[in-house]
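Why this split exists: single-chain examples teach little about how molecules sit against one another. For that reason, every record in the complexes split bundles all components of an assembly together and asks for one structure covering all of them. Below is a record exactly as it appears in the raw files.
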Amino acid sequence: MAGEITEQKLPTEEITPSEWRKRLTYAVLGSLSLSDNIPEQMPSDVVYSVFYQLKPKYPRFLGSLNFQRTKYATGSKELEDILFYLGAFGLVTVENHDFRCLRFSDKDKEATKDNMQKRMANDNSLAELKDLSNDFAKLFRSQTNTCTK
Amino acid sequence: MILQNFSEVKPTPALNKLRGEVTEWLTGALAGYNPVKIRSNKIIRDAIFGFISTHRHEVNIIDSPILQRLRYIHQNSLAYLTYPSATHTRFEHSLGVMSVADNIMQAIIKKHDTSIIQPLEFIETRLAALLHDCGHGPFSHASEAVYFDMATELQSAKNEVPEIFGGAAGHEMLSYLIVTSPTFKTLLWDKVCELYKTEHGYYHLLKMVSFDRIGQMIVGVPNTPSTKYLTQIINGPFDADKFDYVIRDGYFSGLITTLDVDRMSVSIDIDNSNHDGETILCMDIGGSTTLEQLLFNKMLLFSSMYHHHKVRAAFRQLVALLNTARTNKIDICGIELASPVSYLQLDDDRLICDALQKPKLKPLAEAIRNRQLFRRSLVIDNQVLNGPSARSDWFLLSEDNDEKLETERKIAEIAGVEKEQVCIDFPPNPRINSTAKFSMIRRAPDRPLVPLDSLYPVSGWLAGYEQFRFRSYILGPEGSQETIANAAKKVLGYIDIDYELAGSLAKWPNR
């Protein structure tokens, strides 16, 4: 449940960076698409902050995320890379250039959701991804309702 | 977490294995090196910064095989096959970074007083700048792409010691392991110190140098909160590394990149107004234009050079060569590319020369040597991806290395070419958002700092690039573009791509 993040241990098996990247990608896409409660428009600062809060609970998916945090901002190179490709291939657009408000349209979200469910039909981690997405939605909504600027 | 010394870094299996391999390499590399006493400080003429002053102990380090090796590692991999004059190396870049780091420290002293940076901190920060890239393998980031993406050792070390390696790139981790190795100290640094034993003050200072602190600076981990700015000079949002490579890569490629280093020197400062005990690097508002120039030029270098389709093609061919050697256990100069550390034994020349002698690697090496670069069969950007499902599929392919390799293999099979001759290339993110987010600007004395992205619309700018200019490629050998495009169409049939447009963007000869 959001707000009750329980820290889990990192997986001990040897995982290649490629596999970590794949897991992270699924976690980000899953978070943004599998729950019905994610708004289309999302301030990217909040996206970073929510993933920061979720990392301890979902180390299997988010274990390779590293964060840099200051009073002013939360950053992560790994997340920045994924958001870049989401933008480059048109899944996410930037609505407000000053604020970097990401827009993941319902249409794109639905297609991504179907795609992920298809790919992970026989994968028991889909359930965990759905939990992750629900937690993401709750935390996200608790921190902002709209992209204000 | 701020670590005071290396003894606080817990030993772990992956880290121990890497440390053992680095020790073995250093033992061999430094075996024949006996530093000689240098009588006076030296100056080195640099194309970018003019004379770079070096202290005597630095000359000893520069003369060592650890730094000399960098003369044979090109700064921009094979970019010189597209930009002929971009033949500069990691060696002069390392000297340049030391020069910029010194400029920044001098600028800070001018604004405060000489006691603000202690002589020992000066020595350590300059050494960190000089040694920051000593972990690069042949062709810089090309070998890094192979040993970091394919091997588990570095990632395991990252997971086991995130407080040190969490944010570090592969070559930074190797640089850290080199300089913090006891062998580096006994076979190099202790010998250097001994040379100056009769000069008590100097000797005493050199003996106090901590390579654990230097290593932490290289991976961007502050030694203490109050000296965080020194680490940021080496590895931070606007560090000496970026200042040097943006100017140097622009100059040697022929691209017009300018950076007002004088303005930077006047405006750079430190700040501890956050009351959290940290002293960080910041820029007065007047110098924010230098940071804007830095980001603008970085973006220019990405769009014109690092992401140039021919530069990417050459890069992918190198990666294919290294992967072929690695997966087939073909040694290069007697070295099996099994571990990230093995790449430290090689440089650009040795790699290509030896690959030319190996039957399985020869075609790939010859293609590089003779500049027979891959051609674009298809150009995939967001305008050729028809609809949400295609966008989502292509994005997932970009992030799944196994699926990408399997797709390449299938395309090659249908096209009737060798599997290493087909490549799906996704150029890397320029990562300018994080620079803008964490570069702090001071608008007035005693006022809170603001991040650079509050006054400069960097993210919108990057969004423009990613949405309208960024392209991924399906690459293959000359003469096979259409065959590969047709094969790709069959293999990627599940993705709704406008193949007509993707082909026309690739500009085949018959189009």
